[in-house]
Amino acid sequence: MVLEYLIIIVYSVCLLLIFMYALAQLNLLSNYLRYRNKKDDSPKFDLSNPDEIPYVTIQLPVYNELYVMKRLLKNIAKIEYPKDKLEIQVLDDSTDESVEVTAKHIKKLQEKGIDIHHLRRTNRQGFKAGALKEGLAVAKGEFIAIFDADFLPKKDWLLQTVPYFKDPEVGVVQARWGHINRNYSTLTRIQAFMLDAHFTLEQVGRNSKGHFINFNGTAGIWRKETIIDAGNWQGDTLTEDIDLSYRAQLKKWKFKYLEHVETPAELPVIISAARSQQFRWNKGGAENFQKMIRKIISSKNISTKTKVHGILHLLNSSMFTCIFLVAVLSIPMLYIKNEYEHLKNYFYVMSFFVLSSIIFFICYWHMYKNIYGGGIKKFFKYIGAFFTFFSVAMGFSLHNTIAVLEGHFGKKSEFVRTPKFNIKTIKDGWRNNKYIKKKPSVHVILEGLLAVYFIFGMYSAFIVGDQGGDFGLFPFHLMLFIGFAYVFFKSIFSKS
């Protein structure tokens, strides 16, 4: 009975943690809905007045971006802003032929009178954070806009974002991400769904109440003074953006999030690229939890509610560990429930997963409705989108749990870039992309075995107990099977 009780305790604790996270999401939804009806009366620079136009440096940190460099530079060159107040830095850590392609295109832009510089390092120390830090040391701008290689800001992007720095307490202005290839495949639709929830419900929900949010690594602007005051860029975590964001907000700098300013970008189109991105984000989140938790708890400058939301924010990725444990233990729990009558009352805790799922369903519906519109037809499309997202997210839970555990236990790894493809439509090809990881991760085998494991879970529904089976967990096991099978087969047959 010791093992059975241990399983019940771990399972119950994980379900309760997921439920607490769901309640936090519900609170963010409430904040989000109330904020949308408010008029933004933030002070703004009058950019029609030359005396109020600040100097801006655009930083483009790149590493082996052969397929998107021309597109990136061509797009950035169209940015509307006074030329005498704008500098562009290409922070190029590349080690392949893209260096030459980039240099040639930069030279052409320089000949057109654009103040653009090609900055190269002899090593990748600190990875992206190191490149940003070195560029900052020679940047002329009072404000630093940052774009990753796959982002395509609209030409009026600076005109929409820079004015909010008139408030001297604002240290960061962050824009919402868009997706140029949202409908390319099931994989891109799932990623867009996840990111849209973050960039609407979560960012607005936190920012509207003064809770901590994060600069998202790209499509935002920093006040140079803020970066320096917060301790500058540091490369000791894989998510340097969250790290600096929290250090800055602990220093009382305000962050301004602009949901209405969309910055289009390219989503990974193959699962190996999505896996590497997810691994970096989830491991970095855990690393930052370990780095920041004591500072958050001990801070006297922030409210208890902001501390709670901050801790849950940094534990976002750790929820995958709870999901994975709940998934794996759900089959033993099914047998325990039907073998030990005297333990039956303990299984009411299972209802917390149903309640959590309903809360997520409600929260994400508002996000979906905001982007695609409401109505019955849209609602039924949303149901399909939600359960597809939920299933595949659970299918990634092993992969992300490994990332989270590495982050919490301090295992260091290098910054693995997400390969870019320059793909918008299904007609665009990617199979000859030189940056694609050719061999699938060894974790893929375990994901295949887990898919089989949850087939056993569905079979178990028919044979447990003496009352003709127990189908309460059947939908859960079906979704888990779909999720792990999707991740497994995509990882094998997409050569990822």
Characterize the structure shown.
The protein has 16 helices and seven strands. It is globular. Helix 2 links the parallel strand 1 and strand 2. It starts with a helix and ends with a helix. The protein has 496 residues and is of the alpha/beta class. Helix content is 54%, strand content 10%. A seven-stranded mixed sheet has the order 3-2-1-4-6-5-7, sandwiched between helices.
Brief rundown of the structure:
The chain is an alpha/beta fold. Helix content is 54%, strand content 10%.
Helix count equals: 16
How many domains comprise the coordinates?
Answer: 2
Q: What average pLDDT do the residues reach?
A: 92
Order of strands across the widest beta sheet?
3-2-1-4-6-5-7
Largest pleated sheet: 7 strands, mixed
Give the amount of beta strand, in percent: 5-15%
Helix content: 40-55%
Low-pLDDT stretches: none
Number of strands: 7
End-to-end CA span: 43 Å
CATH third-level topology of the largest domain = Spore Coat Polysaccharide Biosynthesis Protein SpsA, Chain A
According to CATH, the homologous superfamily of the largest domain is Spore Coat Polysaccharide Biosynthesis Protein SpsA, Chain A
Specify the CATH architecture of the largest domain: Alpha-Beta Complex
Rough shape?
A: globular
**Class of the largest domain, according to the CATH hierarchy?**
Alpha Beta
Radius of gyration: 24 Å
SSE succession:
HEHEHEHEHEHEHHEHHHHHHHH
Indicate the structural class. alpha/beta
